[in-house]
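Anyone opening a protein record will find just a pair of labelled lines. A complete record is shown below as an example:
=====
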Amino acid sequence: MTSFPSVKTASKAKTISATGSGTCSFRKAFTLVEVVIAVSVVAILTGLALPAIDSVQRERLAREPVNRLILLAREVRGRAMTEQRPYQIVFDGDGFRASRFFNPYGGREETQSLRQQIELMTQQQEMTEASRRRGIAMQAEDVDPAKTRVEDGLRYLEEYKTGSDLRVSLKFWNEMQWVNMSGGEYRRWIFQPSGMCEPMRFKVEADKSFFEIEFHPLTADVKSERSWVE
């Protein structure tokens, strides 16, 4: 009779050992309903995020010519003030380009002439560098900082081509209506050595986007902006 309590105690200890958290653990699995709910939530969030990402991408692409023009305006204004020479940004149906202001009566052929001049100056510089590597001494006037700065301005040409799907329009202070640049028009935006420029508005339109900015004549910074992207 004394052995029965001993067996009962052992059995109870075995039961506790089997159900205790210290010796055995059970992994809970997801049910089919929970999996379906999780997948549905992910699909809904993805569906909400994709249009937003697409809209941001369209806005970035549509705003690219605007941002490029803003950077060019700052660049040419800084050059004009540093070199005390006028600079310009020229607009036509292909896009816009920045360079030093040479001829007030120049036209589209001025850009091609400038490209040829830059190519010639680049070749001359390469010949000078080749002579330097061969040990041929350069004249003192060839390394004059003032002359170097002038030549750098003569070689300056930055161009931006607008896509055929964009409609670019300009409106200067003395114009009553917007001028569509896709119609063979040609306009100059001049930056004086004082840093001042002519008041100008720039508009870019596409099928699902619209940007319009106005530049301040004293600083060439953006004075006002209107935009819309679908």
The beta strands are 87-92, 95-100, 157-161, 167-172, 179-180, 187-191, 200-206, 209-215, 222-229. The CA atoms of residues 55 and 230 lie 7 Å apart. The two ends are 90 Å apart (CA to CA). The mean pLDDT is 76.
